Each structure stands twice: as C-alpha cells, then as structure tokens.
Amino acid sequence: MKIAVIGTGYVGLVTGVSLAEIGHRVSCIDVNEEKVAKMQQGISPIYEPGLSELMTKNINERRLSFTSNHREGIEQADVIYIAVGTPEKSDGSADLSFVVQAAHNIVDCINHNVIVVIKSTVPVGTNDMISEIMQCHLTSDIEVEVVSNPEFLKEGSAIYDSFHGDRIVIGANSERAASLIEQINQPFQVPVFKTDIKSAEMIKYASNAFLATKISFINEISNICELLGADIENVSNGMGMDQRIGSQFLKAGIGYGGSCFPKDTKALIQIAGNVEYEFELLKGVVNVNKKQQGILIGKLNDCLPNILGKKIAVLGLAFKPNTDDLRESASILVTTELIKQGAEVVAYDPIAMTNAKSILDPLVQYAVSIEEAIENSDAALILTDWDEFKNVDLAVFKKMKKPLVIDGRNCFSVKEMERNGIDYYSIGRSVPAKIAEVASI
Ligand code: UDX
C-alpha cells in the first residue's frame, strides 16, 4: 500500500517508520525543510529507542522517504495519515489549526479517491468536521473518506508498542474503509477494535484520562500513607493483585507529565464543558497532579527551611526515563521554585539536558554526572527514575555536605538508605521517626 503521513512529530514519525517496516511504501511530509533534510539521512529529530535504526533500514530498502512538498508526498498515496500536533490553547482546549491546514493541503493535492486517517488526538466530532471541510473543497468526482485511528504509544517504548500494542482502534463510517485500515495494520498482529468515529475519538481521551486518574489516585493514597505510617509500595502491590484494578499505573511519584496526559485531561474537561457537562472527577485529577508536582519542594523546605545560597542537586529532568522530553515535567516547576527561593541549582539528566537548556530557568547549572551534580550539595532531589540513578553506588552521596536525598520516584529502599547513613525522604513511605510519632499517640 502507498501511504503518506503528514506531520513528522513524535506520532507521525513513529507511525510512518512502523508502517514502512511492515512493508508499506511510506512518504512522510513535514513543512520543516531542515528537519526533512536530516530525516532523509536517517537522523531522527527525537530520541526514541530503535527509531533511527528502523529509519535507516527502511530508507535504504526504499520503503521510506521524506519530503517537504505536500504534492510529491500525497500524489501517489492510497491512504493519507494526518499526524500533526494539536497543542493546548490557553483555555485548555485543543488547537486544531494544523489538522485543518493538513486537510486543505490534501484537498489541494489529490486527484484520486483516498482514505484520510486521523492519528492526531482530536476532540470528539473533529473527524466529521474535517470530512466536511474536505467535501466542501473537493471537485465532485473525487471521494474522500475519513477514518479515526488514535494512537496509544508511550514515549521511550513507541517502536515496541507499535508492534506489541494492546489494541488498534479504528473508527469509520463504512465497513470498506474500516477493513482497509485493518488490512494495512494486519502485519502488526495487534487486536483490532472497530467502532464508529465518535467512539474512537472518545476512546483515546477516555483512556488517557483514566490512566491519569489512576496516577492521581495513587498519589493521594501515598500522601495519606505518609500521614498514617503505611507504605505505598506495599499498598500498590496489594491493590494491583486484584485483576479488576491491575498493577500498572499505580506507581506513586511526583505526578504525571509529558505530551499527552496533561493536555488530554484538560481537553476532555473542555470537551465535556462544551456540552454543558462538568467533569468533576477529572478536574480533581488535574488539581491533584498540580499539587503533587510541587511535593518535593515542601519536603525540602521541611528539612532545610532556608535554601537561599544552598546548593541543591536536581537529578532527572525528563518527565519520565528513556526520553529527552521535558514537556509538563515536574522539573520545570521544581527548578523554577528552587531558583525563586534563591538556591544554587545544579541539574543532571542522562539525556534531556540539551532540551532542558532551552526550557528551564537560565540560572539552572548543568553537571556532566551524578557525582558532579551532588558534590558539596546541601540536598539532592530525584525527579526521574532513570536506571542510572536506581543503580548508583550509594557511597556517591557521601560527596554531599551531609547526605540528604529527597526522592520523588522511590528509587531506593528506605532501609538501605538508612544503613548508608543517608537522610532519605521519598513518596508515600513513612520515615522511621514519623512511625514512632504516630505509634506513640
Ligand atoms: C501516555 C500514554 O501511556 C500513551 O498511551 C499515550 O499515547 C500518550 O500518553 P507517555 O506520555 O509517553 O504515554 O508516558 P507514560 O509512560 O504513560 O507516563 C506518563 C507520566 O505518568 C509520566 O510522567 C510518568 O512518570 C507518570 N506515571 C506513569 C506515574 O507517575 N506513575 C505510573 O504508575 C505511571
């Protein structure tokens, strides 16, 4: 099948490369010529394990190409994927201007019948709206059918997820279009769920909102655990054994970040609001997350009430491990607050520092290693659970003025840290002193 993919952001690029890998001829289109020139040489604009290798392989085997010319990319395509961004507007709703632009580009370039697949995360009703825009501008003898096919890829394991996903959702108005998209995806051997267009659009938002709810829920439980002397790791494990609950997304921490959960939860609140429904539960989820992102600052201020002029090491800047993405990462809020309180902030992240330099406060300094970041520091805050941190030799913390580690991702065992003489605070796990306090009441 000949496929065009409009937009080579995270979703578009991974989709295009994966479709090429299963045998389709894919032309990826992006307006950014500089980016296209790099991708033509197999250089990926994002860090994603396995992506560059598959790009090079499929370019060499002539199944994958990149262009900034819409006509060139679209002319021969049987199916055109729209995978452009839908950024958050200031009111929380999704900005659809790139999707609408892509629809106009398609109409301007096609001279044959096509199926347009919308991969971008778009509010319920957008597929119909895009279909109408195209119908209005098309010459009468060309037919375009729009199909919703949301993505569920996780950053850092997107290539793996493409081949091992839990489901592929296809929302279509006709069995013919749904079957064609099913056929395209057949080599992935992932279960297919076919439904109507609006339900497919909603499945994407509802799934992300549900996962975000699980995270905010467990984070609130962790805060209560701290007050009562229970251990969140034990609680999560015990809860997760109930198959109705499931063990995933029950890891307490400093809240969710990234390009999807924060944006999609706010968008779903908006979508519901547009039809005069107040999504109270989801509003709570968003508020809890905002509070949770700042929880380490509270813990730090409890230990060191005045951090003016103190050296604070920040370990981990990406919103999660195995990505260089800082979007909506707690590191933004945490470093901003530390600088505001007058601390000297020295950060280290195995991969995300280049991105961080253009996003974080210019006063943030960067170290080349954990050792350099924590040397002579007054406290170390852990924001991302990179393996490099989890596997570090605990003796390294002796380089601090007095070992004080505040861990937002529960990277270490409380007992182990205690044994190594490290003053250690984490999430939802009571500090021994606190247990004694509660027990004595
Ligand atoms: C998410 C969805 O998982 C994916 O299906 C969708 O397509 C895009 O959004 P992603 O943003 O890549 O993927 O990351 P994910 O691994 O889901 O983690 C999101 C955030 O939640 C991270 O900040 C992570 O640290 C946090 N998280 C996740 C927790 O705090 N606890 C958990 O148990 C799981």
TrEMBL record:
Superkingdom of the source species: Bacteria
Signal peptide: none
Pathways per UniProt: Nucleotide-sugar biosynthesis; UDP-alpha-D-glucuronate biosynthesis; UDP-alpha-D-glucuronate from UDP-alpha-D-glucose: step 1/1
Domain UDP-glucose/GDP-mannose dehydrogenase C-terminal span(s) in chain numbering: 313-414
Pfam family membership, one: UDPG_MGDP_dh
Enzyme Commission (EC) number: 1.1.1.22
Keyword vocabulary terms for this entry: NAD, Oxidoreductase
Coiled coil regions, renumbered to chain: none
SUPFAM superfamilies in alphabetical order: 6-phosphogluconate dehydrogenase C-terminal domain-like, NAD(P)-binding Rossmann-fold domains, UDP-glucose/GDP-mannose dehydrogenase C-terminal domain
Catalysed reaction equations from the record: UDP-alpha-D-glucose + 2 NAD(+) + H2O = UDP-alpha-D-glucuronate + 2 NADH + 3 H(+)
PANTHER family per UniProt: UDP-GLUCOSE 6-DEHYDROGENASE TUAD (PTHR43750), UDP-GLUCOSE 6-DEHYDROGENASE YWQF (PTHR43750:SF4)
Similarity comment text for this entry: Belongs to the UDP-glucose/GDP-mannose dehydrogenase family.
Protein name: UDP-glucose 6-dehydrogenase
Organism: Planococcus kocurii
